[in-house]
Amino acid sequence: MHTLTRSSIILSRNYNIFTARHVFFAGDLQDSLPGFLKTAQSYAHTQQYHHWQTLKPFFNKRIYYNLITTTEMLKYCDTLVYYWTKNKREANFQLKNILSLLPIGSDIFIVGENRSGVRGAKKMMQNYLNLKKIDSRCRCSLYQGTLQLNPSFNENSFWNQYQIGSIILKSFPGVFGFSGLDAGSQLLISTFKNNMHGKVLDIGCGTGVISAFLLSISPQVDLTLTDIHAAAIASSKATLLANCFPGKVYSSNLYSNVYDRFHMIISNPPFHSGLKTNLDIAYKLIQDAPKFLYRNGELRIVANSFLPYPKILDDTFGNHQIIVNNQSFKVYRSIKI
Fold first, then answer.
1. What is the pLDDT of residues 132-164, one digit of tens each?
2. What pairing do the DSSP bridges indicate for beta strands 222-227 and 248-251?
3. Dihedral over Cα of 199, 202, 208, 214: its sign
4. For the whole model, what pTM was predicted?
């Protein structure tokens, strides 16, 4: 995360704008520029635990990781720099949260890659500020405006709820599975049997859908759910609560906060970082899994059929099996010998 994203490159070209400002950075903070861009004082908020880990050495106590931005976080700030997220609903949630708290007259900067939909920021925020493009480079755009009206913000109005069979799913914007059950997770769920038991770790839990289905047929399973996304943590907790299911839910960058061993690790691992394909997360999930499994413990993951996971599974475990597959996805199982 030391290589600058295109969004940070365009911000660094305009560094002189920020030198006398008290800047609040938020949104998709994928690199360390917010930590070393020269300002009068910098603060940051992220919903992504791994971004918090990267930026914490630069900010100390002036960076916050949680779902919601609060008045206390913003009380010294006169400028917002928002890195546009690839999810429009998530951007709307985060921007309305922050703009509802900043004083009228605050300067607002929004930056993002054009293909991420950043052009839509002008229309989305038109009732609160008049954004104008002030720079464009590397297929990125930087917009500036002055806050004219505080939007109303109620986090509860952003919940999405839907039901699959008897299971209630709850989700905030930006969480994988927000609108419904994806085909990969559905295939993974189809491999679960009644009366499974033992300790199970669900990595990248999202809405909590995979764990909820497992608990619905095997209520004796001892489940732990982790994710890097604060909105996913809140969503999984709400899903378990709505179904009266037990389970421990907490933030972790893969295994960074995991201190236990399990009989099974389950996951539908991401293969994108922002807008780019990136297999590093899935590879690390696989390579480190044996440290967190009991002997004869199992890693079970679902992946797009074209992804090259068999070799890394064999290199790590010495074995792999395809439990089920279709035209698009495969469910792999590897056993710690």
1. 999 999 899 999 999 999 999 999 999 999 999
2. parallel
3. negative
4. 0.95
Query: Where does a domain end: 122, 155, 188?
Result: 155
In terms of domains, do 209 and 179 share one?
yes
Residues 117, 202: one domain?
Answer: no
Share of the chain residues as helix, strand and coil, in percent rounded to the nearest 5: 35, 30, 35
Helices (H), 243-327: 280-288, 309-317
- Burial pattern 286-303, b for ≥16 Cβ within 10 A else e, equals beebbebbeeebbbbbbb
How many whole angstroms from its chain centre is CA 312? Answer: 24
Q: Are residues 138 and 183 in the same domain?
A: no
Q: At what angle do helices 230-242 and 209-217 cross, to 10 degrees?
A: 30
Angle at 233 between CA 54 and CA 184, to 5 degrees: 100
Co-location of 146 and 211 in the same domain: no
- Tokens coding 258: 């995991």
pLDDT tens figures, 54-91: 999 999 899 999 999 999 999 999 999 999 999 999 99
By three-state DSSP, how is residue 184 classified? helix
Secondary structure class of 115 (helix, strand, coil): helix
Total domains, the chain: 2
CA dist 68 → 71, 85, 95, 153, 226 (Å): 10, 16, 11, 11, 19
Same domain as 186, residue 141 = no
Same domain, 185 and 293: yes
Find where tokens 């033992």 sit.
Answer: 198
The domain in which residue 330 lies consists of: 159-335
Residue 1 lies in a domain: no
Q: Rounded distance, CA 100 to CA 277, Å? A: 34
Q: What are phi and psi of 191, to 5 degrees?
A: -90, -10
